[in-house]
Write a structure and sequence with these properties.
The complex is a heterodimer. Chain A is an alpha+beta fold. Chain A contains four helices and four strands, in the order αβαββααβ. Chain A has helices at about 5, 25, 45-50, 50-60; strands at about 10-15, 30-35, 40, 65-70. In chain A, the strands form two sheets. A two-stranded antiparallel ribbon of chain A has the order 1-4. In chain A, a hairpin with a 5-residue loop joins strand 2 and strand 3. The two termini of chain A are about 15 Å apart. By secondary structure, chain B is an alpha/beta fold. The chains are: A alpha+beta, B alpha/beta. The interface of A and B includes residues 15, 19, 35, 38 and 66 of A.
Chain lengths: ~70, ~400
Amino acid sequence: MSALVRSGQRLEIDWTRCDGHGLCAALLPGAIGRDDWGYPVVDETAVGQQSSAAVKRAVACCPALALRLARD
Amino acid sequence: MSTNTLMRPMDSTIPVGWIEVEPRLFGRPSTEPLPSFSRDRLLGLLDAVSLTGRGGAGFPMAAKIRALRADAEPIVVINGAEGEPVSAKDHALLGRFPQLVFDGAQVLAEAVGARRVLVAIADSKLIEPLQFALRPGFELHRVPLRFVSGEARALVSALNGAAALPPGRRVLPVHHGVNGRPTLVCNTETLAQLAVLARTGASHFASVGTVAEPGTTLVTVTGSVARPGVYEIPLGLRLGALADWVGAGPSQAVITGGYHGTWLPTSDFPLSRQGVSAAGGTFGAGVLIFVGQQTCALAELTRVAHWLAGESAKQCGPCRFGLPALAGDVTDLLHGAPAAIERHLAQVDRRGACAHPDGAVRFIRSGLGILDSELFAHRHGGCGRPDLGQLVTSRAGRQWAA
């Protein structure tokens, strides 16, 4: 279990901001895919298996500020 | 005690009636002074009858009040925006009996210590009847008329002077609502029910309905029925009893919950949140549409799918691009061509800031799910029936001019 899951955090997409640039999918291959229109498809289990540093990097790199870590 | 009545007074063209119940919401307004309640006494009453919100989600009213942020004076909002094109219950209530709705809002505002009550409407025809009924502390506000503007957070956004769109962040109006204050956004009918409860008490309120869901509810009934309209019914009334009363012809399906709702085969399920849910449907805001045998149900569904795509606020990608794709898919099925619709349904469901994409997926998926023979016919040249327009997709095309 990663530090991310232990800390009760979840990757959340603000759909009103996301423009489907695809950086998150490029940075977290296997955990984030893309739909027919280029928007991210999050596999929550796979995201939980990533290092929290990798997930935080993806959040920081989103050009639309659409990706964030939220507490449940 | 069984009364079946349909009235069509001069002041509104939405027919209203009641079935197997003495009318509470469509009765003569009380002239008795309005009782006053402390927060705790009101919560006790609401708990006693499990009053739930009548705007669609069915959230318990008492829980909503308990969730209010306590460190600032709250604001009460009467949600009369009713974005669903088929629903007419809130319009009928506000157009005919605004005093009952305002009674409920006043009781609620006094109990939670709110001095401002905002009446939010979308239809300009309500301005005139409402502006003369306003009470001290009440303000009338008009918001844009579209499906998503009735969503509580979109409504708060509009009342704050921003676009009438749901925000991308999960903000609760009970924490940060109008002007950043804790805000109770309540459906119009919910407040009318609260007024009935406050004036007549819990045991009278619960003298009809089911044990789990006491009281009455409003349903908007349209489609292939002889007497469309808004009806007050006891919760738990059988669909068959309602169908008999409204004069529903032989039906291919009944749609519960409107255009974010569910296509169901017409069986005799009870009309309550639990009853409709057990039948596989969604009660929503109480819209019931009978789809008759004479119309092409797939063409009706396709028309609504295009309408739903047009109602997208276009701020979330999967909804903006996914709903037109789905509308294209059902158009292909209508013409007997194959479509990758399952893939698109999965890519739209629960992928937006509000429930519009989820509701559209539910509507399309459930419709295709019960129209097997219709889909088969369309793969082999068509069903031969015309689109009779039983599923209304323009506010001007309703069976009544609201």
